Amino acid sequence: MSDSPPHPGPSRLPSAAPFWLSVALIPLIALAAWQGAWWWLLVPVYAWYLTTALDGVLGLNEDNPDPETATDQLFWHRAVTLVWFPLQFAAIFGSLWLVGFTDHLSGWEASGLFFAIGVVSGSVGIVYSHELLHQKTPSERWLGDLLLASVLYSHFRTEHLLVHHSWVSTPRDAVSARYNEGFHRFFWRVLTDGPRSAWAAETRFLARAGKTPLDRRNPFWRYAALQLGMLALAVILAGWVGLGLFVFQAFIAVWQLELTNYVEHYGLSRKHLGEGRYEPVRPRHSWNASHMATNWLLINLQRHSDHHTKPDRRFPLLQTYAPDEAPQLPMGYPAMTFLAMVPPLWRRRMNPRVRAWRRQFYPEIEDWSAYNDGSLPMPRNAL
């Protein structure tokens, strides 16, 4: 970890306030809906460019909070994740009402508005759902499910909890991007493999309890009901146009999520020990980033090395790591995802870092070809 000693855990509103940066996006959505025209551009400018510029000004935050801080001292940190679903729901369906019951927005203005909403529901909403789904309280998990249903990506819960955290950086995990794999190819692979992988994981999990996939405890029933409810509400509010706009914002949100997934583990592989056995997950198997402002917006998601080490650790308590323990991104996620959209720029910036990571942590491996093309054996007992 960072050489900085742990400081007392956050407990009051001032320490939590920076993590409420995301809430400013809601009035920006309202402004774009009211004014029309090009006002929707304020949302990506704020979420992508302003936070990246602030990273350049504020630099890195390498302080580590006390990981033993009690949950009851994190009220104001948790609160932003708890209030986010009603805020996002109001943004999505309030905008659909505006489209359906007024002629205030032209077609291109509505499309721009729902692009902006997709940026918010993807770069904030799915990040918050990720935090909520890792918790043990039913209310938090339900809020996570509702957020995922609002972007039609409910299977992410199963895929993330049952597959990704167990088999990250192995061939079993679809969202562990391979070395030299461009984002666009990765995106298509995840869209096609992810739902099938999640279904297989859930059915095998049920089979271990002697249940069939049709059992009421299969969460895919809940996923389907929530997603159908969201789609039905979109049609009620704005007809088929509303359905199209809702699906459009969901696609933009998923695009944002999978860009982030691509960045988080690109080129990082767990060592194959033979016969389908892989080394344990370590901080070195996720890219770490300590950039201050983007970690505020993304509630410390960029401290991803620690998240995979302690998946149930709440976001205010996530630790950062030094370069001798985890590979470091040169910029925060918003800037890195921009590079990922242009594969030649991405490879120029990241491939040398992957090769340096391999020399640093695995000098004994001379042939990486099977890691690069995903042809290593599937892990034993993988869901």
TrEMBL record:
Question: What are the TM regions of this chain, as residue ranges?
Answer: 12-32, 79-100, 112-133, 226-252, 329-346
Report the membrane topology from the UniProt record. Answer: Multi-pass membrane protein
Q: Where is the Fatty acid desaturase domain?
A: 107-338
- Keyword vocabulary terms for this entry: Cell inner membrane, Cell membrane, Iron, Membrane, Metal-binding, Monooxygenase, Oxidoreductase, Transmembrane, Transmembrane helix
Question: Pfam families in the record, alphabetically?
Answer: FA_desaturase (PF00487)
GO process terms (BP): lipid metabolic process
Localization (cell)? Cell inner membrane
Gene Ontology cellular-component terms for this entry are: plasma membrane
Keyword Transferase recorded: no
Listed InterPro entries: AlkB/XylM, FA_desaturase_dom
* Main subcellular location: membrane
Show the GO MF annotations: metal ion binding; monooxygenase activity
Similarity remark: Belongs to the fatty acid desaturase type 1 family. AlkB subfamily.
| Name under which the protein is recorded | Alkane 1-monooxygenase
Annotated source species:
Paracoccus liaowanqingii
